[in-house]
Amino acid sequence: MRRKIVAGNWKMNGSKALAQTLVSDVQSQTASLDNGVEVVIIPPAIYVGDVVANAGGSLSVGVQNVGQWSSGAYTGEIAAEMAVDQGCQYALVGHSERRQLFGESDDVVAQKVGRVIGAGLHAVLCVGETLEEREAGRAESVVASQVKAGLAGVAKDQWQRVIVAYEPVWAIGTGKTATAQDAQAMHASLRQVLSEMGAPANEISLLYGGSVKADNAAALFAEPDIDGGLIGGASLVAEDFVSICRSVPAGT
After folding, report:
1. By residue range, what is the domain housing residue 203?
2. For residue range 205-239, what is the model confidence (pLDDT) as tens digits?
3. Catalytic residue numbers?
4. Terminal Cα distance for the chain, rounded
5. In this structure, what are the phi and psi dihedrals at residue 119, rounded to the nearest 5 degrees?
6. Under DSSP, is residue 64 helix (H, G, I), strand (E, B) or coil?
């Protein structure tokens, strides 16, 4: 059975107060969930310690980015090992904002995946197409290329540390969301690509991201190849985020 995961990516938002109140609220309201979902909070790195302190042991914690190096003269970067040292279990890699705003190439993404897995973290590889690419009929080929490049260095015994998050770029922070059917079609295609790479595709969790909200989460999570979500803005409001976590169907 694949793991069900709902992860909240705070992006460049947050404060010590939010790390205390929001995380405590989410922790208390999700601790008794019986649908088997793993809840992950991914704050800016500077607040990881605060989130860990308030997670109560029932929430997992991730980091939004790591460098492609283990240590050295890279001012402003953090190593995957540092994230582990602070209590993280997950790391995002290849988010579209990192690719677009910071020029991260497929090669850099692959290097980061290697560092993340090597440090003992779970790598959440983010992939997705632009509106122009989708309208040109290239959505599946673009996403497949990102998956193949980003996970090219994953060894046979490392696949259990891989999660793939499909986030259509045109739906991130825009209020637009792929239909449940469109999202399912891409997730099914992703699973086929992973299978062709020799991965245990049916054991790898695939998440959907891109304006997931309380009112559309249930329909998305009901699809057979969607194992949860990577949530942006809605993860900053405890009530909304918890509602999304509750939308994950039990026993699937």
Report:
1. 62-232
2. 999 998 899 999 999 999 999 999 999 999 999 99
3. 95, 167
4. 7
5. -80, -10
6. coil
Residues in contact with 244: Cβ distance below 8 Å, sequence separation at least 6, in sequence order: 6, 212, 213, 214, 217, 229, 231, 234
Residue 226 within any structural domain of the chain: yes
pLDDT of residue 176: 78
What's the pLDDT score for residue 178? 84
69 appears as a binding residue in the annotation: no
What parts of the chain have a pLDDT lower than 50?
none
The verdict on whether residue 11 carries a ligand-binding annotation is: yes
Q: Where are the alpha helices (DSSP H) in the chain?
A: 16-30, 48-54, 80-85, 96-101, 106-118, 131-135, 139-150, 180-196, 217-221, 238-246
Distance, CA of 171 to chain centre: 15
| Residue 123: inside a domain | yes
Q: What is the pTM of this model?
A: 0.96
Residues 164 and 194: beta-carbon distance below 8 Å: yes
Let me know if residue 52 belongs to a domain.
Answer: no
Say what the pLDDT of residue 5 is.
98
State the pLDDT at residue 1.
Answer: 75
Is position 173 annotated in a ligand binding site? yes
Per-residue model confidence (pLDDT) at position 210: 86
Residue 23 within any structural domain of the chain:
no
What's 105's domain CATH number? 3.20.20.70
Residue 5 phi, psi dihedral angles, 5° rounding: -135, 135
Q: How many domains does the chain have?
A: 1
| 68-97 pLDDT, tens digit each | 999 999 999 999 999 999 999 999 999 999
